[in-house]
Amino acid sequence: MALTDTALKALKPTEKPTKHSDGGGLHLLLSPKGSKLWRLSYRFDGKQQTMALGAYPAVTLADARRHRENVKALLAKGINPSHHAKLERITKRASNAVTFKAVADEYLLKIAKEGKADTTQNKKEWLLGLAMPDIGSRPVSEITAAEILVPLRRIEAKGNYETARRVRSTIGQIFRYAIATARTDNDPTFGLKGALTAPVVSHRAAVTDKKAFGGLLRAIWAYEGMPETRMALQLMALLYPRPGELRQAEWSEIDFDKAIWTLPASRMKMRREHRKPLSAQALAILEELRALTGDGKLLFPAVTSRTGTMSENTMNSALRRMGFTQDEATSHGFRASASTLLNESGQWAPDAIEAELAHVGADEVRKAYHRALYWDERVKMADWWAGEIHTMKSQVE
């Protein structure tokens, strides 16, 4: 006779174990101490075998019957249910061992081997670190969109909408890597694209008016703070690299005889070596700087450590002390200033300006051609721009 929940609840233990059948090999074993244990007997390859399904009522009567039907389905396919259950337990343990942090660490190691820039690597580590307390120890295959939303909402609550967006994107990269390496079959970040507050797009502040730029230059050349900071800003104006490229520059990259600064591919945004011609004015500033930091590796070491680089906030903080707000001038803004004024001059090919800025388009052949073709023009442009800077900072109204 089939069992019922009422009958199961009413069972009383006896001195010896008793077996109560539900049919199809499923039965409940009642121990003398009162425990009620589900068992399922079946025959495979001519041998009688028994599986333990758990204890009642944690495993309900309905659960036990579902197990019985699953076993029947496996037997029909010629699969040993005991072996199948063992394999599932092993798979689950392996899945639980593959945490989000383990996959993230593996992914970061992978992109490091592929030669991603240190700045890119550090940025990804920092972004992932914002979510690790919430999902780092969780099995990657079990993480849900709701779990990922927890750290994202916390970041948003601080008003950091762009950071939240980047954290979501970086977490998505980890999940796509996990999918590609058979650790999971789902990227839960996909469904969160519309859940986050869209950041207001704002361009980095830059002075693009010639007279206003002259005022900025005068303030920089008259800056009375740390001389290394003043020289960093002067070189930003003359050479307009990305701020990180200048802050991390090493003396071994400067060829004073050939007047060339060679930036290695490892530090370039587009992962290509980039050479910049140095004007006489830039070389003079570098000579002055060499007297201060030339005994070390870095052009601009940190104040607290000769092995660390100047803080990314140092130049912007100096601009604030000069009276320029973050909406008026930033260290990155020198690139826009130079690009605008060089293009407005009408004296230089736009592609030569783009080459000097180390901007990269889609056509690889065209890029290689222009790098070679425009070198001589870029050398002349560097000298002309240095002369323009001298003129602009000297014109006081």
From TrEMBL:
Residues 98-179 form the Core-binding (CB) domain. Gene3D superfamilies: 1.10.150.130, Integrase, DNA-binding domain (3.30.160.390), Intergrase catalytic core (1.10.443.10). Belongs to the 'phage' integrase family. It holds the Pfam family Phage_integrase. CDD domains: INT_P4_C (cd00801). GO terms for biological process: DNA integration; DNA recombination. InterPro entries: CB (IPR044068), DNA_brk_join_enz (IPR011010), Integrase-like_cat_sf (IPR013762), Integrase_catalytic (IPR002104), Integrase_DNA-bd_sf (IPR038488), Integrase_DNA_bind_dom (IPR025166), Integrase_recombinase_N (IPR010998), Phage_int_M (IPR053876). Keywords: DNA integration, DNA recombination, DNA-binding. Residues 1-26 are annotated as: Disordered. Residues 202-383 form the Tyr recombinase domain. It comes from the Bacteria. Residues 12-22 have a biased composition (Basic and acidic residues). This is Tyr recombinase domain-containing protein. GO terms for molecular function: DNA binding.
